[in-house]
Design brief:
CATH architecture of the largest domain: 3-Layer(aba) Sandwich
Distance between the termini: 62 Å
Strand order of the largest sheet: 2-8-7-6-5-3-4
Shape: globular
Structural class: alpha/beta
Number of domains: 2
Low-confidence stretches: none
Helix content: 25-40%
Bound molecules: pyridoxal-5'-phosphate
Length: about 400
Amino acid sequence: MPRFPASSSTNRSLSAGVFSAVAERVRHYSGPAYRLHIGDTWREPLAAAMAESQRTADLPHLHTYSPVHGEPPLLDAIVRRIKKRTGRTLDRGAVQVTAGATGALSVLCQTLLDPGDEVLLPAPFWPLIRGIIASRGAVPVQVPLFDRLRSPGFDLERALEQAITPRTVAIYVNSPHNPTGVILDASEAAVIARVARRHDLWVLCDEVYEELWLGDAPHEPLWSRPDLFDRTIAVHSMSKGYGLAGARVGYLHGPPEVVGAVRAVHTYQVYGAARPMQLGAARALDEGDAWLAEARTLYRDAAQATARTLGVPTPAGGTFLFFDARPWLGGAADAEPLLLRCVDEGVLLTPGAASGDAYPTWVRVCFTSVPPDQLSEALARLGGVLAAMAPAPTAGGAA
Ligand SMILES: Cc1ncc(COP(=O)(O)O)c(C=O)c1O
């Protein structure tokens, strides 16, 4: 049946941007802007990893096609990095270089899912993942979880079990987490493993913040646990830890047979990730430890300052804080009044609704997207807005 001029019904609901009163106000704002709504870093990457450090004089044929699998020096660097981080030796064939983690998850969903399949999507979540699953014609099943994980009475296993149907094929897990900064602990990971094994689910482990733990020691990645390793595809990125978001380089690894199938899909959808930036990424993985340690120190300070302003605990990892703005909303059904006041102060924040249907009154703040002096100014402005919108004390004195 002819379709012109419409696009496919699967993809009609996707949009490249979100129209909202907040976005409209941002368009008309002309003062200095503090872009705390973007999950990126103000830091320049390691010099050896920069685009301008990849030179044809040193690297002949730099601009020819890269192998679909990935550049050999990057594949070697990935295997070395994973070994150093977890002690596991990956088979090179079980690794696929991708165009960022977005490209990895997109190709992975295309490989594993059929239209109508359901994927458990613990909420709140990284906004793009919902669309990535939906663009395959599959159904993202939101399971509110990360904001209540350690609250008395919350039962993680029951929450996951209740969302499972005969159509459930996979669960997506992101830890350290965007947007709450939670790092799942061993007992929570064990619950996920138990549920996945009981229902024979694939586990899609989104590891893009793996290097950005803000406590004293790194955590054990979920995918490397013996009870998850055989059913997990882990997705990594050079964007977050290494400050290379514009390079569009990531990678995934998992059981060799499925990674072979991913590679076939990658051939037809992407072919290969950008060759010069794959070579830069290899340098970052091999030589970036000091850069990373410095990033963690700077980000930890930024996280603490942001948490103080909001009066919430410092996140365990990642680059965001996520808070329920209800106390400042005067009964409004969503966070728009606060977001609009912030735009007038030049402070741009993300509406929680982008991270799930259960979060209309929540707000996400990225604490790594502007340098420390600008973050201080942005937090002073945000603190001013919160003070101005704080509820008046009641007669009994409690606010
Ligand atoms: C949880 C999560 N997964 C994946 C991505 C995508 O990363 P990349 O830049 O490698 O595509 C992001 C980016 O913000 C993210 O927050």
